[in-house]
Design goal:
heterodimer, A: MetI-like fold, two-stranded antiparallel sheet, 2 strands, 73% helix, B: mainly alpha, MetI-like fold, 77% helix, globular
């Protein structure tokens, strides 16, 4: 146990403590640090740009979390009930692919697909929607949703596979009983499938919310936070502040806020499902 | 019956559509990679003269051989040690149930939710203090630490499910704790260890943030980190960049296809034990 704890303490716990400590100082990384109390946190919560990054990551939750989980539910239902086995297992493997490749490669591929002469615009032109074509990642209005879609693409497979595994554990007899009672497919889904998947849904939401809040690779590669600050997320901002603007204290304050937000977001999900799940 | 058939058809269509969307970026990379270096091909155009040697050129300009070796070295540095110490800790927490274990375990749980960005700043100064910046150790050592929450959590879950009688029997035969661990529990833990190994390998290979922050020299980075540098350098030469990206994601694809069953199962257990 000790070696693991040592490695963990040295490269995780200690840095967390240091992050919290830096957050109370103004430091450029070279000259002696100056104690500034809560000033950095005040900046985080008042500065437009920094608040904006937090807002962006909340918006990304819609794409990273809500879309993969709902769409994943739909896809898993289809695989489980309707589609032939061969299509299902192929689809499972294919949808899972994005989970395996480096996010960096995914970012490069998508920034090309979404570029002004990319596949998306070519398809739009072909179906007569030439008017809406644009460089999706370079447009102030569409850049953040476009980044979000890349995230949804990455996470859909994971959610689908998780939910599918959950569905296979639900007792078939429940469905037969429901059918005898005259329940339709929708009713079955709402009163058997959804409650039965409570734990799996909680896991999906937890994993994807963390992914949304700590997004870095995709944004760094596909937009560098641009255009302007339209897609800057906390992870990227921490990186910029600490290693380019030499505002280590401010970067750490943002990091602390980010870690707290992650815990605040995850705790209710875990408590809600644990309470009536295990006991 | 008609309804059932129609919903089956639309369900199948949904799956096919999603598969197409999933594969689209890969196909786009592939067709683009075959265009003449330095051009801006449109959409999914298949080039009239496929430039297969783009792959060779990308291999050379990205120093792919060196990067590959570097990534392998990093994986060798991270994965076996992580597995060993995570297994020992998991054994202590899950099977021996050492005193104070609950507190330690909660401490590890906390780390499961941690975004790497939360610790990257102090890590940079810590690694600099050790004088390890720009070496592979700068990626290896922190990653071992950062993988501990998941690794310990994973192995603990495995050991929790083993019957205590097993150890008692061995104890009666006079085995020490150390022998118990190596002779009996390690062999039994093979499936759990294999899954953990696959996951950690892929996560190490794809690690990006640590690589770009802690190591300036792309030839000492992970594959993903090196790709970031490659993009910075060759970002305007789209076909070459596409070829390079494909080369870099091939190894993980191969691992995935070979271990597909194992892989999915591993991830599933990993998330569900939560």
């Amino acid at each position: 146990m000790l070696p693991a704890l040592t490695a963990y303490a040295l490269f995780v716990l200690w840095p967390i403590v240091k992050t919290i400590k830096y957050a109370f100082y103004s430091w450029d990384g070279i000259l002696p640090a100056k104690w500034v109390g809560l000033a950095n946190f005040k900046t985080v919560f008042t500065d437009h740009q920094l608040l904006g990054t937090l807002g962006h990551s909340l918006e990304l939750i819609i794409f990273f979390s809500i879309i993969p989980v709902t769409l994943g539910l739909a896809v898993a239902t289809v695989m489980n009930r309707v589609a032939s086995r061969r299509i299902s297992s192929t689809a499972r493997a294919v949808l899972f692919l994005p989970q395996v490749v480096p996010l960096v490669a995914a970012g490069i591929a998508w920034s090309w697909v979404l570029s002004s002469s990319g596949v998306v615009n070519e398809v739009l032109k072909a179906i007569g929607l030439g008017g809406v074509t644009r460089p999706w990642l370079g447009d102030f209005g569409t850049a953040l949703p476009a980044v979000g879609l890349i995230g949804a693409w990455v996470l859909l497979g994971l959610c689908t596979v998780l939910l599918l595994a959950g569905m296979s554990k639900i007792d078939r007899a429940l469905y037969e009983a429901a059918q005898l009672d005259g329940a339709g497919p929708v009713r079955e889904f709402l009163s058997i499938t959804l409650p039965g998947l409570r734990n799996e849904i909680a896991v999906c939401v937890t994993v994807t919310v963390i992914a949304a809040l700590s997004a870095f690779d995709i944004v760094y590669i596909s937009t560098r936070g641009g255009p302007g600050y339209a897609t800057t997320v906390p992870g990227l901002e921490i990186y910029q502040l600490a290693f380019f603007n030499r505002q280590v204290g401010l970067a750490s304050a943002l990091a602390v806020v980010l870690m707290v937000i992650v815990i605040l977001a995850i705790l209710p999900i875990q408590l809600l499902t644990r309470k009536d799940g295990d006991s | 019956m008609i309804i059932a058939r129609r919903s089956s058809w639309s369900g199948g269509a949904l799956l096919v559509f999603l598969m197409a969307v999933t594969l689209l970026p890969f196909m786009s990379l592939f067709t683009t990679a075959l265009h003449e270096s330095g051009t801006y091909p449109r959409g999914l155009d298949w080039p009239s003269h496929p430039h297969w040697h783009n792959f060779i050129e990308a291999f050379h300009v990205a120093n792919m051989g060196v990067i590959f070796k570097s990534s392998v070295l990093i994986v060798i540095g991270v994965v076996p040690v992580s597995i060993l110490i995570a297994t020992m800790a998991g054994f202590g927490l899950g099977h021996l149930r050492v005193r104070g274990g609950r507190v330690v375990f909660l401490l590890f749980l906390l780390g499961l939710t941690l975004p790497f960005e939360g610790v990257i700043v102090p890590l940079y100064y810590e690694i600099r203090g050790f004088g390890l910046l720009n070496t592979r150790w700068a990626i290896i050592l922190p990653l071992i630490g950062l993988f501990m929450p998941f690794g310990v959590y994973w192995m603990r879950a495995h050991f929790l499910n083993l019957p205590q009688e097993l150890s008692e029997a061995a104890r009666v035969d006079g085995a020490t704790t150390w022998q118990l661990f190596w002779r009996i529990h390690i062999p039994l833990a093979r499936p759990a260890v294999t899954s953990l190994g696959i996951l950690l390998t892929v996560w190490t290979w794809n690690q990006f943030l640590l690589a770009i922050v802690l190591v300036d020299d792309p030839t000492k980075r992970t594959m993903a980190g090196a790709l970031g540098a490659f993009q910075g350098q060759w970002g305007t030469n789209i076909p070459l960049l596409s070829a390079g990206s494909l080369l870099i994601l091939t190894p993980t694809l191969v691992v995935f296809l070979v271990f597909q069953r194992h892989f999915v199962a591993a991830l599933l257990q990993g998330s569900l034990k939560g």
